[in-house]
Specification:
This protein is of the alpha+beta class. The protein has helices at 3-15, 18-25, 29-43, 59-85, 99-116, 129-138, 182-185, 199-207, 221-229, 274-294, and strands at residues 48-51, 54-57, 91-97, 120-126, 143-147, 155-169, 235-238, 249-252, 259-266. The termini are far apart. Belongs to the LysR transcriptional regulatory family.
Length: 295
């Protein structure tokens, strides 16, 4: 298979349409169809399911996807290496991030990095822990922000300790000034995010046998805070989620110290492209400097 064939395959996957893939690659739809048909003939199996709703991978295509993505990544890494040898700093870095890390850190990281490396493009992919993990495994992103509990078998470097706190409606009074006890939390009604959205908070809830949400299946932080603001209950969440954002809620420390460890994750550090290595170093150095300033 040629590099163009790999590009066609990935464009069809991303666009879920031969017509849209043709537009992205500046080819005709018939050229896309011919390329896909040639791939399927060469491989001896169908890669895509064609339907009125769109074009989707077969199970066989799904199995091949990460390998074809790695071929494309290898070509990108090669071009970056050639540019670096020629004295140019260029390339593409794709970063996966969960919501609160994106809101709190990405603007300043992007501004600083682009100032030093204006010819390196940064693509941001935002999703849940599960999304970022799978994007890394499939080669969709090069680097990812995750919690240590969700990094699985990925290589990673710890960069930040984020406290778990209680968020309560405005005017909420605790039995003890300045903190809330576990026993008091057990008496509360909770707003919780659905399973898989915040593994660290779920771990704390299970650890102390705290009551579940009782009908709330929230998928994002801001919706959970909005329900708390409306008096629907209290919630536990990482401090990073609401830092520097003036919500009309009470932010209350727990009597016990619980934290999530945020990590910078990647599949293998020894195969990172030159541009990715520079971004990795920039992120790690930025957080090291941040930690030193906070001491």
């Amino acid at each position: 298979m040629t590099l163009l064939a790999y590009q066609v395959f990935l464009a069809v996957v991303e666009q879920e349409s031969f017509q849209k893939a043709a537009q992205v690659l500046n080819l005709t739809p018939s050229a896309i169809s011919h390329a896909v048909a040639s791939m399927e003939t060469e491989l001896g199996s169908a890669l895509f399911i064609r339907s009125k709703q769109g074009v989707y991978l077969t199970n066989y295509g799904k199995e091949l996807f990460p390998y074809i993505k790695n071929v494309q990544n290898s070509e990108e890494y090669f071009q970056q290496a050639v540019a670096q040898i020629g004295g140019m700093e260029k390339g593409v870095v794709r970063i996966g991030t969960f919501n609160s890390a994106c809101v709190e850190w990405m603007p300043s990281l992007l501004r600083g990095f682009e100032k030093d490396y204006p010819n390196i493009r940064i693509d941001i992919y935002q999703g849940s822990y599960d999304d970022v993990y799978q994007w890394l495994k499939d080669g969709i992103v090069d680097l990812g922000f995750l919690s240590s509990t969700s990094a699985g078998d990925l290589s990673c470097t710890p960069i930040y300790q984020d406290k778990i706190i209680c968020v309560a409606p405005q005017g909420f009074k605790t039995e003890n000034e300045g903190y809330i006890t576990i026993e008091e939390l057990k008496k509360q009604r909770f707003v919780t995010q659905r399973e898989g959205c915040d593994a660290d908070v779920n771990h704390v809830m299970n650890k102390y046998d705290l009551p579940g949400g009782g009908g709330s299946y929230i998928a994002d932080d801001m919706s959970a805070v909005s329900l708390v603001m409306g008096g629907f209950g209290v919630c536990l969440m990482p401090e990073l989620v609401i830092r520097n954002i003036p919500f009309p809620v009470e932010v209350i420390p727990l009597e016990v110290e619980e934290k999530r460890t945020i990590v910078l994750a990647y599949v293998r550090s020894d195969v990172l492209a030159p541009a990715v290595q520079k971004m990795q170093s920039y992120i790690l150095e930025s957080f090291q400097k941040k930690a030193e300033e906070e001491q």
